[in-house]
Amino acid sequence: MERRLLCNRMERKMEENTVRDVETGSETGGEDALVGNVNKLTVSPPGYTGALRKGHLVFDACFESGNLGRVDYISEFEFDLFIRPDTCNPRFRVWFNFTVENVRETQRVIFNVVNFSKTKSLYRDGMSPVVKSTSRPKWQRLPAKNVYYYRCPDHRRNYVMSFAFCFDREDDVYQFAYCYPYTYSRLQHYLASLERRNLPYLQREQLGLSVQQRRLDLLTITNPDHLSPDREKKLVFLTARVHPGESPASFICQGVIDFLVSQHPVAQVLRDHVIFKIVPMLNPDGVYLGNYRCSLMGFDLNRHWQDPSPWAHPTLHAVKQLIVQMNQDPRVSLEFYIDVHAHSTMLNGFMYGNVFEDEERVQRQAVFPRLLCQNAPDFSFSNTSFNRDVVKAGTGRRFLGGLLDDTSYCYTLEVSFYSYMMAGSTAPVPYTEETYTKLGRNVARTFLDYYKLNNFIKDNRPTHIQSSEVMSQTGDGNRKGNGVGRDAADREREKSQGVRH
What we know:
Elements lengths: L1 H14 L25 E2 L15 E3 L9 E6 L2 E5 L14 E5 L6 E6 L16 E4 L2 E6 L5 E5 L7 E8 L7 E4 L6 H13 L5 E8 L5 E7 L11 E8 L7 H13 L4 H9 L1 E5 L4 H6 L24 H14 L4 E12 L5 E5 L5 H7 L1 H9 L9 E2 L9 H8 L5 E8 L2 E2 L8 E2 L2 H18 L20 E4 L2 E4 L7 H8 L6
Parallel strand pairs: 4-6, 14-15, 14-16, 16-19, 17-18
Antiparallel strand pairs: 1-2, 2-5, 3-4, 5-11, 6-10, 7-8, 7-11, 9-10, 12-13, 13-15, 17-19, 20-21, 22-23
């Protein structure tokens, strides 16, 4: 029913010959004028002046990571929704996150998100928004059959994503989002819970503050004996959420952390041999504000690594200073920099690397993604690429790839906002919060193979990840993750690859 209703509406839209002007002639102002989120906005029929009735929807996005700038009433069952652009940067309109309440039971609606700034989207490939409600607090993806993505004459031929939905519980508040939200407060709650465990191999410190004075957290995970001045230190540096709307990056980052602080035998060996430094949220202001790509001041921070300003890009400036300082320390071997992102048009997890003239270095750079491909069924080596695009010159991967020496490797780890393809399958598997987290655990696990540390596992215990051995300590309560393992034959094959000790 929802699909038929949606398709009929789309056909009528495509047949219309006039283009509605959304920039002038509208009482509420044009989309380019959107600067704030709707705040308990009641959307009732034009001219209605009576008391609020059930079914007169109330929209709200004035909460952390919320985004909805405007709602237009089209009919009793249809509403046009406008994404609020990133603060100080109208170019980016992708992330949305809002609530709807005062619904009528069995009320069917069509929501049209009408002002996306990107044309290419995974909505063309079956992606759908996520939803939860008061009585069902776990996020779920909407059925793909209820989602339609098309170029619309009503909105200057911009691309529109429409989805049909049937409200079923009058007392529930419903929340819709572009992808599973992961807020700044959720991260702070998670890190505080880790601190309370008083783990000797985990150190949390405040590396700096954002423009709006939010914490820039740095975690150091290693056996404390490894920090002694007379030992050479192999160091892996990982960052996430430089682009605030790319929330899957936070689930991956948490998966890495959960695994490294666990009692899994692989994690124990890794802590004995490697120092992991993790900045889980490079752009806390952008995350808090509900931006997609930019900081409070409208900067895409991942284009400012070359010369970050201490006042305009303070979080980036602090991280760059730390990395440069560690790189100049002869006792530290900074071997990896991995920046975690989410991708809006591709499937699976994959990596971007740099281009080198030295063929041996080219081959060595490919080792880690090849090993990760063996550990993570959702990671695609065929999607992994190595480039030196001019537009990417200011990214962490490109800048640090030029700064660090030839024993260091810098990657961007990307994961799809939507789904992954299993080997031999033709149907995409939609990502969940749990499978994003599992990819993070597999990233951490892969360092055991890279450094050839399998022989350090005591008592011949299995090195694959069992769900019972890694506990997630999020604000949502303790959840066991799903493990993914490999057999001895896999590891034997990898020993023939040129991994560095």
